[in-house]
């Protein structure tokens, strides 16, 4: 199913000159990964602490873009500059779910959305990333299927933060429906990642038998 993630190759091309410069300066993929996580935790914590200042939410859209860039950069450093490592694989997956949780959590403290459903979204987001990584365990690729991948969640939460930050009002029906819709889309994402991972493994097995 379609996802903003499909735009990643184009985004990476724009970042390639910067990545070359970082590699030349001795910056490693793991350093970028850890920095992105530390900044995500700090940003989420500050937005919770200063939850009575909704204008601070305006930093979220810009930060989501920065984090997306950093996630692309660490992957390019690892793949294109010989920095792949087992530690990096763990860091990449673990810091992603930690960062997602901290950047979603402030929405539970705004008094707009039901905190329970924000919690449900966080849990389902973690499960969806697990479903993506388990593909590797069965011999398929890491699955990034949509419709509600990491980039899609960042876009929706970033748009909501921008609207609230400029003083926009989220009416009650939208505040009720949006988290539930995200939860449904996350369940669909989990199903797609499991189903497509299994299908990929089945196709690979069939090809190997024909060979």
Describe the protein's architecture and organization.
The protein has a single domain (4-210), classed as CDP-alcohol phosphotransferase transmembrane (TM) domain (Four Helix Bundle (Hemerythrin (Met), subunit A)). It is globular, with a radius of gyration of 18 Å. The chain has seven helices and no strands. It has 211 residues and is mainly α. The model has no long low-confidence stretch (mean pLDDT 91). It has helices at 8-24, 29-49, 59-80, 86-104, 115-137, 150-165, 172-210.
* Share of residues in helices: over 70%
| CATH hierarchy: architecture | Up-down Bundle
Measured distance between first and last alpha carbons: 30 Å
Query: How large is the share of residues in beta strands?
Result: under 5%
The biggest sheet, with number of strands, parallel, antiparallel or mixed sense and barrel status, is: none
- Overall form: globular
CATH topology: Four Helix Bundle (Hemerythrin (Met), subunit A)
* Number of separate helices: 7
Listing every helix as H and every strand as E from the N terminus to the C terminus, the arrangement reads: HHHHHHH
The secondary-structure class comes to mainly alpha
Alpha-carbon Rg, integer:
18 Å
The whole-number mean of residue pLDDT values reads 91
Question: How many structural domains in the coordinates?
Answer: 1
Keywords:
single chain, 211 residues, mainly alpha, Four Helix Bundle (Hemerythrin (Met), subunit A), globular
């Amino acid at each position: 199913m379609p996802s903003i993630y499909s735009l990643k190759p184009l985004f990476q091309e724009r970042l390639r000159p910067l990545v070359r410069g970082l590699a030349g300066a001795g910056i490693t993929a793991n350093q970028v990964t850890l920095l992105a996580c530390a900044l995500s935790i700090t940003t989420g914590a500050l937005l919770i602490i200063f939850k009575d200042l909704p204008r601070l939410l305006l930093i979220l859209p810009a930060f989501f873009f920065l984090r997306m860039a950093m996630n692309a950069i660490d992957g390019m450093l690892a793949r294109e500059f010989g920095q792949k490592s087992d530690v990096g694989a763990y860091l990449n997956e673990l810091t992603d779910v930690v960062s997602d949780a901290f950047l979603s959590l402030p929405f539970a403290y705004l008094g707009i959305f039901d905190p329970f459903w924000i919690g449900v979204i966080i849990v389902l987001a973690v499960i969806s990333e697990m479903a993506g990584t388990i593909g590797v365990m069965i011999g398929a690729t890491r699955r990034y299927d949509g419709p509600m991948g990491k980039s899609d969640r960042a876009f929706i939460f970033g748009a909501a933060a921008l609207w609230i930050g400029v003083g926009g009002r989220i009416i009650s029906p939208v505040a009720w429906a949006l988290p539930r819709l995200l939860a449904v889309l996350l369940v669909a994402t989990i199903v797609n990642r499991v189903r497509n991972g299994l299908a990929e493994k089945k196709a690979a097995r069939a090809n190997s038998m024909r060979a």
